[in-house]
Write a structure and sequence with these properties.
The chain is of the alpha/beta class and 356 residues long. The chain has one domain: TIM Barrel (Alpha-Beta Barrel), CATH 3.20.20. 29% of the residues lie in helices and 16% in strands. It has 13 helices and twelve strands. The protein starts with 12 loop residues before the first helix and ends with a helix. Bound molecules: iron/sulfur cluster.
Length: 356
């Protein structure tokens, strides 16, 4: 029978191996991304345009959002089904004032050997130490340009580069590494500033990943012409600094990794548009209001909040989760047809609700 073998021997690697939950395309449930809240202190046009998310926009209320205990329950059950990597995201997760408490709880889950956070880093400097002490392993920073004007444009006029760089420094001091820097590259918006950003982080030990602009959600007006294919970016990099490919850290890793031949470190390319990687996608995403999505481009998810608040225990929630995953057959990026109108009519989940 597809997928399920046995439950909840999370801390023993042998039985963990046999606890893998496989979807309809034989992909294991390995990563869980948890969105802590739908709010953000930036207004990046490709995710949360100011015009839509203005001052009067009604975000989720406290009661609508999962509590930390409810998030912990989902994570605990998911780790029993094979999840070993948990990523905390948002909106902007550092807006959650009690984040270190949640991190402490998650870092104690058996079998979770990779606990990461994605942030825009503006609030990171004063929090990095407490998060590391609580058990956070590493951080990924969203930073689309080091050009002040371009950065301002791409953060919706809300970001401050100095605080972002201070956040990166504090994360390094706190040992939250390797630090990954995610750069969404949009033609004619920030692609002309990519090499300067790479130059800045060369030799720093931080890993810059260049991400193809994606048609996430329904509000960023995505068009294929705005995408700078990774192979084109790679050519630009090669002209300036020779790089050579290096293998993946683990199956399902999204980035194609390259190392500078002169030893100045590593960069990565995340090419969801031109080199889809659905074949090894092992990620589930939990929204802040408790909906589980099995793809970044999903048009629907499964509500877990109701069964949890109706008293479901770990086994009952485990059955719900494994049923969702066993039926999973998502491969949106492989099927993406930007030339077909219907494709643009899909009502996909918004990225700010589930994180990237
Ligand atoms: S498009 Fe969906 S299935 Fe494909 S890699 Fe992205 S999240 Fe995974």
């Amino acid at each position: 029978m597809h997928g399920m073998t046995s439950h909840s021997k999370a801390d023993d690697p042998i039985s963990r191996e046999s606890t893998r939950t496989l979807d309809a395309l034989d992909r294991p449930l390995h990563d869980l991304r948890i969105s802590l809240l739908d709010r953000c202190n930036f207004r990046c046009p490709y995710c949360m345009p100011e015009t839509e998310f203005h001052a009067d926009y009604e975000f989720l209320t406290r009661a609508q959002r999962l509590t930390h205990d409810e998030m912990l329950m989902v994570a605990r059950v998911a780790s029993g089904l094979g999840v070993s990597k948990i990523r905390l995201t948002g909106g902007e997760p550092l807006l959650d004032k009690k984040l270190p408490e949640l991190v402490k709880g998650l870092s104690g889950l058996p079998g979770v050997d990779d606990l990461a956070l994605t942030t825009n880093a503006t609030l990171l400097a004063p929090l990095a130490g407490a998060l590391a002490d609580a058990g956070l392993h590493r951080v990924t920073i969203s930073l689309d340009s080091l050009d002040e004007d371009v950065f301002r444009t791409m953060s919706g006029g809300r970001g401050n580069l100095t605080t972002v760089l201070a956040g990166i420094e504090a994360a390094e001091k706190a040992g939250l590494s390797p630090i990954k820097i995610n750069v969404v590259v949009e033609r004619g918006v920030n692609d002309h500033t990519v090499l300067d950003l790479l130059e800045h982080f060369r030799g720093s030990g931080h890993i810059v990943r260049l991400i193809e602009f994606m048609d996430v959600g329904n509000r960023n007006g995505w068009r294929m012409e705005q995408v700078v294919p990774s192979r084109e970016l790679l050519e630009r990099v090669q002209e300036r600094w020779p790089v050579t490919p290096v293998g993946r850290n683990y199956p399902g890793e999204v980035a194609r990794r390259y190392a500078y031949v002169d030893g100045a470190g590593e960069i990565g390319f995340i090419s969801s548009v031109t080199e889809a990687f659905c074949g090894s996608c092992s990620r589930a995403r939990l929204s802040a209001d408790g909906v589980l999505y099995t793809c970044l481009f999903a048009t629907q998810g499964t509500d877990l909040r109701e069964p949890i608040r109706n008293g479901a225990d770990d086994d009952e929630l485990g059955d719900i989760l494994s049923r969702i995953w066993l039926q999973r057959a998502d491969r949106y990026s492989e099927l993406r047809r930007p030339d077909v109108a219907e494709h643009h009519a899909l009502s996909k989940v918004e990225m700010y609700r589930i994180g990237g």
